[in-house]
Amino acid sequence: MSHLLSKSKYIRGLQCDRALWLDVHNPRLAKYTREQMRRFDRGRDFEYAFKATFPDGIDLSAELKRNVDAYPERTAQLLDKEEEIDLFEAGFSYDDVLVLADVVHKRPDGTLDIYEVKSGNTLSETYRRDAALQHYVISHCREINTFSIVYANPAGGFIKEELSAALQEQHEKIEKNIAAMKEIIRSGEPATPTGQHCLEPYACPYQHYCAQGVRQMSLFG
Ligand code: SF4
Q: Would you say the C-alpha torsion 71, 74, 79, 83 has a positive or negative sign?
């Protein structure tokens, strides 16, 4: 594995060190509810609708499928070759973190406009954190012109909010978070107790597993 962290693992790590560790070392333990699966599907549909506004976009996932480590090299090839191009799921890697950007537009001057698509209808803190990691990684690979979060307009259509300056300010914090997460991944499973953090900002998919540990401790501890 050439990268240690992805965007989803980083977001998991912000919620709980144990969840991050499980995501890396024992992801088969994750259990998602039907409602969570439906939410993923709704998010995908919204993302497809936005991508359809870039009719010439090249979808790297159609070519590379789940071979995620191949995305950065293929992305670099396409960005180096073409003067102007739209890419979906463009891959960038820096500091052992791999991210895939929903939509990347390379401008004639070589700089990038990045669009991160979210299906909610407000710009939440979790969306900003997610985008901040993308911005951190991509800005160490290419020059970014704009970085926008795209979310749902309750009246229909899309709202685009350009956040480059605010995301840039997060870089130092992100660098420290990544270093701490790498340590967690390389160590043994944390014995983090369950609590409110298991439900916020996302319902953790390892709740059944951690609850088992609590039951065992109460029976034998
Ligand atoms: S259930 Fe709670 S303690 Fe267990 S991994 Fe998830 S967030 Fe962490």
A: negative
pLDDT for 218 beyond 80:
no
How many alpha carbons lie under 13 Å from residue 153 in its C-beta half-sphere?
9
pLDDT tens digits along 107-157: 999 999 999 999 999 999 989 999 999 999 999 999 999 999 999 999 999
Within the chain, strands assigned E span 5-6, 58-59, 85-94, 97-106, 112-117, 144-152, 158-162
| CB-based contacts of 165, cutoff 8 Å, min separation 6 | none
Contacts of 59 (CB under 8 A, 6+ apart): 51, 88, 89
Closest CA relative to residue 163, chosen from 101, 110, 111, 113: 113
Nearest-atom number in ligand 1 for the CA of 192 is 3
CA atoms within 13 A on the CB side of 128: 15
Pocket test for ligand 1, best of 22, 194, 217 (most atoms within 8 A of CB): 194
What digits encode the pLDDT tens for the residues 21-72? 999 999 999 999 999 999 999 999 999 999 999 999 999 999 999 999 999 9
Domains identified in the chain and CATH numbers:
5-24+33-192 (3.90.320)
Are 87 and 75 in contact, with CB atoms under 8 Å apart?
yes
How remote is the CA of residue 210 from the centroid of ligand 1, in Å?
6
